[in-house]
Write a structure and sequence with these properties.
Layout (H helix, E strand, L loop, with lengths): L25 H9 L25 E3 L5 E3 L1
Antiparallel strand pairs: 1-2
């Protein structure tokens, strides 16, 4: 059995890549994960994101002693 240890204090940065056909909700998923609108969406039939785009989201968390940190 292999046990992995995950700690936000050790986490500096990570990347997630979403790929898929047009008009399936990739930008909507990015916005849902971020909790706010960072990726443009559209109700039109043509896609609104035609190139690879990078979105950065700062992560806030509390350490064991209660201090707030940002990654």
């Amino acid at each position: 059995e292999v046990e992995a240890e995950f700690s936000l204090e050790k986490l500096e940065e990570f990347s997630i890549m979403l790929v898929g056909p047009p008009r399936v909700g990739k930008s909507t998923l990015v916005n849902a994960v971020c909790g706010r609108e960072v990726a443009p969406t559209s109700a039109r039939l043509d896609s609104c994101t035609k190139s690879m785009t990078k979105y950065e989201l700062p992560v806030h968390y509390n350490t064991e002693n209660g201090d707030e940190r940002q990654v």
